[in-house]
Amino acid sequence: MRALRTMAFLLAVLLAACSELPTSGPIVEVSVNSQGRGVQIAPEPPAEGMAPARVVEGFLQAMSDPTGGYSVARQYLTAEAAEGWQPDLATVIYDGALSEVDGNQILEGTTQGILDQEGRFTVERLPLTHDFQIVEEDGEWRIGAAPRGILLSRYIFERSYALVKSYFVARQGQSVIADVLHIPTVSLTPERVLRAQFAGPSKRTGLITRSAIPDGVQLGPGGATIDAEGTVLVDLTGLPAELPDQERRELGAQLLWSLASIPRVTGLRVTSDGAPWVIPGQNARRVLELSSQQGYQPLSRASAVDLFGVRETRLGRLSPEQNFIPLNGDGQPLDMAAVSLDGATTAYVSSETGVVRIGPAAGTLSTVDSTVRQARAAQFAAGRLWLLGVDATGVQRLVTLSAQGEVVEVGLQDLPGAVVDFAVDPSGTRVGVIVDVAGARQFGLAMVDETPRFVSFEELRPVTESREALSDAGSLDWTSEIDLALIGRSGAGMSVFIVRSDGSSVTDIGPSHGEEPVQLTALPRPGGDSVAVRHAGGDVLVYSAHRAWQRANAAFDWISYPG
């Protein structure tokens, strides 16, 4: 983190931003990337007689393509500038504009984030400026002062870079956890994905994961290729001859789920120095199929889809017609309810006393004293109920409860302030958290270690599509394995946003009018799904992907999607 901030500072005097790029210039339409937001931008070399402004525009577009060591982009530079340019120093994502000042082409704007060499995004908000120092060389205008590193407008970044999930094995349980990477679409190959795998998890992700790739293993002479059926053939060298079956399974799952970031990948076949290498579970053709690896993906266990809620101390669910349908429950009053991701376990919570009735959804519930009082947040994650409240002395406490009634306290001492709301991801290893620090709210991510305890809290300061910092976070929940839904403020009004866990993407899905929402719950799915918000008066609005918000026909005192 310190290194990234230092790099951002060094770049601040040299780099600049460009948002609303002109539609003229060397732009061509190519095929739509299934992970992108529209047409990609294919850079072209400079044309004869280009004006200074067009030269700079072409260079800004060409920096999206690393092919040949950024060979196209280098053609916009003078010979001296091209020789001295170091694009690998940093990649800066920015908003801003290009203008002409006293005959000079100047970019001025604000950074949105920085990518490290592996493609990990860190939010950074810094003022940037850069004078390209246009000069004439061999009768053509060329750039005499290249930036230190790469400059990408947010527009180009979103259309030229692919989202890659580089998975590693959780230290607890049987699942794979994703590091979020951003890689130029033209570089999205099996070998590029494997390079990130060999590099291992980030420092933060490494707190909760480990790599299943044994030390010393690298890509062999056979490389990595994709056949017509979507199977990746990976040749590895340095694989231990006597690797146990469980470790082989984990290696296969980690590699295959990571390679599945390439849209057409469906299977994996591994060789060791060219010889077939067995992975338990592979088919007769020695192919490990992605469909056989769903058990390693926590979201694949999701089966319950209803929005549950409490109305006048009674549990119910919301029908497709947006009506409240009472459920039998156990006949006792409750304030909050939670359902596990697979729908197998239910918990009813009496908020003031902290008494929890927990057990099989269709069986007998056990009554448990959670040891917390004035419970204010409850959810299931990794098979346990997570409950936030205070102890008898008023000190904030977070505990987890098993279906058998075992109570375990989760340490909060590493957080910078009191917890306003939290959301543990389905794997039980990462948590989105809103904390109150001296009256100001911070939104960020923490990891859950084996203790268990929240560790490595990192504040996120994502910027909305309207270029305003997200503030006043109020409630949140995971909507996919790498995205959170969040109530927050952008400008004057409160709204609901989908925020990528690294802060690289923020989407406003509303609603942005009327009474401010006080509670949010989301249905976690691989591609994101439904979000619901409850207002102080009990009104509930439900949003499903690609649909508008719908108002429920009944008021609720508490709402919760499974998981």
From TrEMBL:
Signal peptide per UniProt: 1-19
Keywords: Signal
Entry keyword Signal: yes
InterPro entries to which the protein is assigned, alphabetical: GerMN (IPR019606), LpqB_N (IPR059026)
Presence of the UniProt keyword Nucleotide-binding in the record: no
Domain GerMN as annotated: residue spans: 190-281
The protein's name: GerMN domain-containing protein
